[in-house]
Amino acid sequence: MNTMPLLSWHMVRVAQIYQAAFAGYPWFEPLTIEEVLQRLEPLFVKPGFTGCVVVGDGRIVAAHWHDIISIGQLRKDRGDELAQWVIGNGYDEGLLIWERELIVDPEYQRKGLAHQLRNEFLQHLIGYRTPLLVLTRLREDNFGSIKSAQTINMFDTGVTKPASQAPLKHHYWALTVG
After folding, report:
1. Please, what are the domains in the chain?
2. pTM of the predicted structure, to 2 decimals
3. pLDDT (tens digit, 9 = 90+) per residue, 7-37?
């Protein structure tokens, strides 16, 4: 299976994968394609938006994307505790990257595609040729995403936020590059 850049004309297929992935474990969130597109469209125009997809069997089967975020936007979007963690650990002077999504079509899960996408992501980050910090949010019961994050040495920051499905929590994860 090959990776290629995520382009705007991939959005409908990516929305279908997103819809299928969030319909099952661990979210069980029944979303219409219209609801998914409403979520995705604002993300695809964020500063520094970049992503890639995996193509298999003649179609897109997985996607990953990220963007560049300022400390001020991080504080606004994710709260003061995470922003303070970034500042307190000396990462506020470098480039901040927010890993938005990593989604795999349920038919293709557990085939190493998340690992493939995260490795492609890491290679892209190295291409920035500057020290940077990647941040993302993972729900504590999303074991597959946690495992793939750990394969590229992401670590749990210790900062958490309640998930909409109480009593679960989201944990903020980080990766330093460069």
Report:
1. 2-177 (3.40.630.30)
2. 0.90
3. 988 999 999 999 999 898 777 888 999 999 9
